Amino acid sequence: MHRLLVRGVVRGAAASIDSSSRWVLPGPKLLHTARPCLSDAGSSGDRRAQSPETSASSAATSSTVDSADKQNKSNSERERSQPTTASTLSDSFGRFHSYLRISLTERCNLRCKYCMPADGVQLTQKQQLLTSAEVLQLASLFVAEGVRKIRLTGGEPTVRKDLTEIVAQLKATNPLLESVGITTNGLMLTRQLVGLQRAGLDALNVSLDTLRAARYEQITRRKGWDRVMAGIDLAIQLGYRPKVNCVLMKGFNEDEICDFVELTRDRNVDVRFIEYMPFTGNRWDTDKMVPYRAMLETIRARYPAFEALPNGPNDTSKAYRVPGYRGQMGFITSMTEHFCGSCNRLRITADGNLKVCLFGNTEVSLRDALRSPGCSEDDLRCLISAAVKRKKKQHAGMLNLSQMENRPMILIGG
């Protein structure tokens, strides 16, 4: 069944889902119906390289064959661990996408200025959102194709009553999945984190843009700073190293840069400064953005020994630390020093659209495909593969991004 549907969606704050805007994927060369072998990558259950039968008449011959077999088996496993450009999750620039972010809801219990317009957003009707079963089905499909890390986002994922169950099911049904994390505003952590840890939660990101209670209310338009701090401390006590995400805005909270550095003195946290990014409704302008290099200058003026740490090949955060401090710092430089060349992330919105780029405004409805009669897993793979292979080399420059229509951040997930 090749009735697979793609939509180019340009959504404003009040845009709604319109199934009449769907159209058929052009170009058969972008589609493939054979399931790629990528789902075998890293699996210890599949052993295609078998030892040859050896003759018992010669111990030396047996040893030689065994040695050759081990080498061939090792080579085979290395080859299977490397994704190819023909795989479902590889784009035309050779980037393999092993990290999936899934938004569980558009609802949130805060109204952060950089995330949500002051007058709110028009939420998608419940029947048009992915069900828990659909979330788990899509997650399993992506894991089979090579995703090894899933992060659950929102909105605010902790407002989902079945969040703990979703985490438990992801861990129980996907043995190849290496990490399940959540991104949260932290308000509900003291109530939910113990249960989430028992369900198998591996990682935790907490959004916190100020260490001052009064300013927290200004940014979020709500109270609760002390509850967030209690949630971070609980996470540390439970053995997590929570990542604390802080969006810096000039004239608002950039005077707290060194306060956040001090947060890492006695707490095992990873504070990450995020450059202010443009999304529909957040009234972005270049005057509000604090560039990464300016942050570094501010920190090194007070902490001359502030040192860089090694980064992984797909890390979006540039890691640093003050020697002797328990925690560390990071900088997410989406605007001034993009990291598109090593991007390994895909996003599924709460209404089931696949976004291959955070700043892209073209989306593909996996929900519509899932709910189409006769849609098979191979059909879904074709749809996903076509979308991934159309991913651009990099996003537009920050001035262009500020003029492009995109979802408000709360409707994207993160």
UniProtKB/TrEMBL annotation:
The keyword Transport does not apply. InterPro entries: Aldolase_TIM (IPR013785), Elp3/MiaA/NifB-like_rSAM (IPR006638), MoaA (IPR013483), MoaA-like (IPR040064), MoaA_NifB_PqqE_Fe-S-bd_CS (IPR000385), MoaA_twitch (IPR010505), MoCo_biosynth_MoaA/MoaC (IPR050105), rSAM (IPR007197). It comes from the Eukaryota. Pathway: Cofactor biosynthesis; molybdopterin biosynthesis. One of its GO terms (molecular function) is 4 iron, 4 sulfur cluster binding. Residues 67-81 have a biased composition (Basic and acidic residues). Residues 36-89 are annotated as: Disordered. In the C-terminal section; belongs to the MoaC family. Isoform MOCS1A and isoform MOCS1B probably form a complex that catalyzes the conversion of 5'-GTP to cyclic pyranopterin monophosphate (cPMP). MOCS1A catalyzes the cyclization of GTP to (8S)-3',8-cyclo-7,8-dihydroguanosine 5'-triphosphate and MOCS1B catalyzes the subsequent conversion of (8S)-3',8-cyclo-7,8-dihydroguanosine 5'-triphosphate to cPMP. This is Molybdenum cofactor biosynthesis protein 1.
